[in-house]
Design a protein that fits this description.
The complex is a heterotetramer, with 2 copies of chain A (154 residues) and 2 copies of chain B (84 residues). In chain A, a hairpin with a 4-residue loop joins strand 7 and strand 8. Chain A has 4 helices and 8 strands, in the order βαββαβββαββα. Chain A has a single domain, classed as Molybdopterin biosynthesis MoaE subunit (Aldehyde Oxidoreductase, domain 3, Alpha-Beta Complex). In chain A, helix 2 runs antiparallel to helix 3 and helix 3 crosses helix 4. In chain A, the strands form 2 sheets. In chain A, strands 1-4-6-2 form a 4-stranded mixed sheet, with helices on both faces. In chain A, strands 5-3-7-8 form a 4-stranded antiparallel sheet, with no helix packed on it. Classes of the chains: A alpha+beta (154), B alpha+beta (84). At the A-C interface, helix 1, strand 2 and helix 3 of A face helix 1, strand 2 and helix 3 of C. Chains A, C: GO terms for molecular function: molybdopterin synthase activity. Chains A, C: This is Molybdopterin synthase catalytic subunit.
Chain lengths: 154, 84, 154, 84
């Protein structure tokens, strides 16, 4: 049985702690793949403001996580996405995939990030040092990355 | 009652996070609802004249404009997502 | 300039802390890919005893890490490999790759794990509940995984 | 002095983690050294008769059997690695 954890929160997260939870009371995990998204600076960016659609966000995140568990035979996975104002250098999102072997763990992590980018209802507004603020435009390459996985369905 | 929600720059431009209203007569699909909202003119007229900029969810699932709409549904309009 | 950290140690590691070090005084990191290898149980396995070749191990780990930084344009990477006796469920190895974009961060992580498995001089002995103990045989699929990257050279 | 190291099951079977000796006369390559070790017989004879089971490093870099060996080199013999 695989174990899925999905959270939307303002606070930061602790990858070490979340990894330990995926290993608790299991002896069939050979590796945990992970990705931590970070607010990248440049062009005078100061911070991102992250908005989401409560209810639908959690539902989509759970669908993505359950789909990854089925497709890659994960023993468990965790997705935590932050909302609110996040300054340059701060972590935004954490994906963890635990599996018997490293290939499944790392592919599951890629799969979840690709789907999160295109299917979880989050929107980012950029805040610049000159006071300007604007909504981030979606990137065509994110759609392309997701398309290679086919459909989300489990 | 029908719940309509707006997110990100749609909400900014409409100046409103959402509204609750009885299902308007004759509205059976998302497209019907878009046509009604567009007919309001102003910011609604501008935004809903360009459906290619908008994504739709019906009851927390992504939907296309031909999806059916019923009383008590929650319909959300928003730009393509940019999380992760 | 990319920053490489390589360590062989008996103690465990803290992925959250090591990730923070990769972000310190930088604003050009968009994501950190990670893999944590775990002692997987089954077949009566109780623990692994990990042996290595001091000196050559650190040298190979550094070569692999520097090669990943060049090849994937990483802003930094960290490899920590434990030695000694490790029980089922315990972490063995941590690889972290920081980059501007997620694709480079996750591919760099895969690359480093594949090379570590086939080119860093570590050997595992399995210890079973019935007292039996034997050296782990290398897996052909690890050689195949590494071969797809061509040569290690930077 | 030449340093020779043995790891994992090679060390277990030889009962010895390594040795330090003057470069034997006529030894110019890893293959020459393997031949000398094999000629000792016993566990050495058995192990070094099967070079396909063995990997070799000269001064901390992987090497092939035709790699040159000089005085003061560190030569390590071990099975294929299984870390990570």
């Amino acid at each position: 049985m695989s174990c899925v954890t999905v959270r939307v929160q303002a606070d930061t997260f602790d990858a070490t702690h979340e990894t330990a939870l995926l290993l608790r009371r299991r002896d069939d995990v050979g590796g945990v793949g992970a990705f931590t998204g970070i607010v990248r600076g440049g062009g005078g960016l100061v911070a991102l403001e992250l908005e989401h659609y409560p209810g639908m966000t959690e539902s989509m995140m759970r669908q993505i996580a359950e789909s990854a568990c089925t497709r890659f035979g994960l023993t468990g996975c965790t997705v935590i996405h932050r909302v609110g104002r996040l300054e340059v250098g701060m972590p935004i999102v954490l994906v963890l995939c635990a599996a018997a072997h490293r290939k499944a763990a790392l592919e599951g992590t890629e799969f979840m990030m690709d789907w999160l980018k295109t299917s979880a209802p989050f929107w980012k507004r950029e805040e610049f040092s000159n006071g300007r603020s604007e909504w981030v435009q979606p990137r065509a390459q994110d759609d392309a990355a997701t398309a290679r996985w086919g459909t989300l369905g489990t | 009652m029908l719940r309509i929600l707006y997110f990100a720059w749609l909400r900014d431009q409409l100046g409103c996070p959402g509204e609750t209203l009885p299902l308007p007569q004759g509205v059976r699909s998302v497209q019907d609802l878009i046509d009604r909202l567009r007919a309001r003119g102003g910011a609604y007229g501008e935004i809903f004249a360009r459906p290619e900029l908008i994504r739709v969810a019906v009851n927390h699932s992504f939907a296309t404009v031909d999806a059916p709409v019923a009383a008590n549904d929650e319909i959300a309009f928003f730009p393509p997502v940019t999380g992760g």
